[in-house]
Amino acid sequence: MQKKIDNKLSGLAVPIQSKGRFFKEKKNSLRNDFQRDRDRIIHSTAFRRLKHKTQVFVNNTGDHFRTRITHSLEVSQIARTLSKYFNLNEDLCETISLAHDLGHTPFGHAGEDALNTCMKKYGGFDHNIQTLRIITILENRYYNFRGLNLSKETLDGLIKHNGPVKDLTKINKILGKNFFKKKINFSLNSSLEAQIASISDDIAYNSHDLEDGLKSNLFKLSHLNDIPILNKIITKHVKKSKKFSTDLIIRQIIREIINQMVKDVIFTTKKNLKFYKIKNLNDIYKAKNKIVSFSNKMQKFDRKIKKFLKQKMYFHREVISKTNYGKKIIIKLFSKIKSNPKQYINIKKYNNSNIERIICDYIAGMTDRYAINLYNQIK
Asked: Which of 186, 187, 194, 209 is the most exposed place for a label (fewest CB within 10 A)?
């Protein structure tokens, strides 16, 4: 499905020239607005910390399992491939992909659940909104403003990682009312670049969690035979088991899954663009449905894979025992730090938030290792 790529962006792309930032800055002669956004993400403290944050396995359980940083890089690679095919703004697509998981806590979704419980009376916790706190408030690297001052298009894409925002309650509680000063239209659809970053996230974690689960022996290839699409791929590659190692066969299966999902997104998106009569960028924003999507057949596969991974991997007793340990650590840290915040946190670094939100920001920013070490010191 190769396509000749034109240097000129499609009329459906977000233009290379951004609509601007919340705080005015001089343009850079070497990089466009979205390349600068990407570089700010890569150089941020929050991005570096993703190296030691759990994807599924707690970070001290093995060197070859994925962490949040490897996941984010894999998402950006898939997103750039799709973006290039449609002649979209690759730099914007890459930036959203690299930044989408900055707000994750240590210990994956278990850590998020624990922190949300601790923050129940104080507005709760949500990793997507935490990403917004990081890029607008917590990263402090510039004289003239807090946060990274990313372009409005990048912010829009991160805010709408899961589509238009219909309920602003959580955003208002965690960030504050009218935080974006009416510069973001929450009800409009997201750009194709943001939609591509979102579906690339699905493709990456479905396929790569599958690979990590197989390599850690939580399940076997034979357990996957009931999943449509996957069973045909497995049958084809398992025939080569006399000639090649199981490891190599698994890698080939994962490659083919990603390839089929990417091709499906291209085919379905082209169909949607035609069906919804999308002619320009404005049509994208006004569309009531996602334009970038899987076919019905691939959606069924996506649901089956997620259900399988939930049962066989995320709820596996070995994984659960580690994630429960992570929950215990976060609840204990929150309680202990709250009893004497100044002993652990430089309060002045934070921007007039209430003390519980400051503690929440501090814990959410921890790596798995740091949280475990601090817990062992104070328990």
From this structure: 187
pLDDT of 5 reads 45
Number of structural domains, the chain?
1
Please report whether residue 26 resides in a domain.
no
pLDDT digits (tens, 9 = 90+) for 229-246: 898 999 999 888 888 998
14 located within any domain:
no
- Which pLDDT does position 352 carry in this prediction? 67
Distances in whole angstroms, Cα of residue 199 to Cα of each of 95, 265, 366: 15, 8, 27
- CA atoms of 271 and 290, how far apart (whole Å): 12
Question: Hey, what are 99's tokens?
Answer: 């930044």
> Looking at residue 258, which CATH number applies to its domain?
1.10.3210.10
Q: Is the dihedral of CA 265, 266, 271, 275 positive or negative?
A: positive
315 vs 362: which has the higher pLDDT: 362
pLDDT tens by residue, 84-124: 999 999 999 999 999 999 999 999 889 999 999 999 999 99
pLDDT of 63 higher than 70: no
- For 120, 133, 163, 181, 290, the CA distances from 189, given in Å and listed in that order, are 30, 22, 6, 19, 8
Whether 58 is in a domain gets the answer yes
Residue 182: which residues within 8 A CB-CB, separation 6 or more?
A: none
Which residues make Cβ contacts (< 8 Å) with residue 15, sequence separation at least 6? 9, 89, 281
**Buried (b) or exposed (e) across 212-238, using 16+ Cβ within 10 A?**
bbbebebbebeebeebebbeebbeebe
Domain-located, residue 23: no
Task: Write out the residue range of the structural domain in which residue 44 sits.
Answer: 33-378
> For the chain, what's the residue count?
379
